[in-house]
Each structure stands twice: as structure tokens, then as C-alpha cells.
Design the sequence.
């Protein structure tokens, strides 16, 4: 986040992460890092990372590394210049609220189908509050992926859609809203392990509150 600035290329931002994990002894990424600025953040699996960062835009940074054969997959979205605009903050807060509610919802016994439908309902209401849609079916224009996936030895471990989640299962929680006409894409992704009573957020120490991001980036 601190290295972000206008004029930098996405691949240069990506290189800072690669250098960091290698410096700390990890040799392998979980997948090709997504460093997507502006409208590129509305492309789900954007991998070109060749666009120059612009002042006033956001960066969607989706990354992970492999440790002892297990992988991580985490996304944070932050402003190039360290300060969210009013509209960016408005959309970000809606996505963050869905992220938090989904984490609170998860526990052993819930099916993946229930999890997905719960999240989709929250995103539909968020899109309505943001003035993006008036009918539920229109959400496909702003949210076109599942709420997450199982993760472990592979970035997308297999999971059964209608089977109850078991304690010890590790999942991603990754709501997003993508507004191509505003060149704005926001996703916030955490990794959680399911327990009998709820879940544990394994990525909770990676900041995601607006005030924390802005404070961190200005230091």
C-alpha cells in the first residue's frame, strides 16, 4: 500500500509483493498476482498488470503465497494516492459490510449454497442503496462471481455445494462490487477457518478499514 503512487505500473507494484515473500523464504505465489487499477479492477481474473497507476483511482490487489504446500488468497483494495474519494468510500463501505456479515454468518453445518445465497442477498441490497440497480436480477451487472471458494493445497480446492461445512474447512470470503462505467472495482477477501461456533479470520491482521488504510498510507 505504501509503495502505491501515480505513475507506477501495476507490474511494479506486483514486484514489491514478490520480493517480500521471497525475502522471507517463500519461493512460490499461490497464483498469478492481480494488481488491477481503475477499470482493470472490474475484470475478475485480470493478469496483464501493465497499466500505469493514476491519481484518484483504486488498486485491487489479489495475491497469495504458498507455505509448506498450503496456499493463501487475500485481496485488499486501496487508493493510489492514499485517500478514498466520497464515492469510492461509499462503495467500499458496502463491500466491507458484506465481508463482515459473511464472516459472522459462517459456522459448521451451513451449506455452501446457503453461504452463497446469503452473500448474494446482501450484495443485491448494497447495489440498490448505491443506486446501481432497482431489480434483483440486475445484480449480475455488478457482481458476477461466487462469494468465495475452499482453499488449502490448491487455491480452489473442491467443495460440495449442498453438503454442510465441516469444522476445519478453510474458505475465502470475497464479496465485490464492480462498476465498469465508473472505472471502479472493489473486492475485499479474507481467509477463514470454520469452527463449530463460527469461524476464525486468518487474515484479520491485514487492515481493511478505510481509516486504517488512509492512516497507514500517509505514514
Sequence:
Amino acid at each position: 500500500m505504501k509503495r502505491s503512487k501515480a505513475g507506477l505500473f501495476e507490474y511494479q507494484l506486483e514486484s514489491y509483493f514478490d520480493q517480500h515473500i521471497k525475502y522471507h523464504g517463500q519461493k512460490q505465489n499461490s497464483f498469478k498476482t492481480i494488481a488491477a487499477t481503475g477499470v482493470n479492477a472490474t475484470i475478475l481474473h485480470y493478469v496483464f498488470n501493465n497499466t500505469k497507476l493514476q491519481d484518484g483511482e483504486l488498486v485491487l490487489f489479489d495475491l497469495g503465497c504458498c507455505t509448506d504446500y498450503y496456499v493463501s488468497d487475500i485481496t485488499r483494495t486501496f487508493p493510489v494516492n492514499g485517500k478514498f474519494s466520497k464515492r469510492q468510500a461509499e462503495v467500499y463501505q458496502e463491500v466491507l459490510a458484506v465481508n463482515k456479515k459473511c464472516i459472522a454468518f459462517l459456522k459448521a453445518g451451513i451449506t455452501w449454497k446457503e453461504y452463497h445465497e446469503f452473500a448474494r442477498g446482501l450484495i443485491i441490497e448494497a447495489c440498490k442503496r448505491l443506486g446501481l440497480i432497482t431489480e434483483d436480477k440486475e445484480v449480475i451487472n455488478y457482481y458476477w462471481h461466487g462469494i468465495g471458494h475452499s482453499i488449502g493445497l490448491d487455491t480452489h480446492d473442491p467443495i460440495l455445494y449442498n453438503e454442510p461445512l465441516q469444522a476445519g474447512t478453510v474458505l475465502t470470503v470475497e464479496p465485490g462490487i464492480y462498476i465498469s462505467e465508473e472505472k471502479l472495482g472493489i473486492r475485499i477477501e479474507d481467509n477463514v477457518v470454520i469452527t463449530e461456533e463460527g469461524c476464525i479470520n486468518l487474515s484479520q491482521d491485514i487492515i481493511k478499514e478505510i481509516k486504517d488504510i488512509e492512516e497507514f498510507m500517509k505514514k
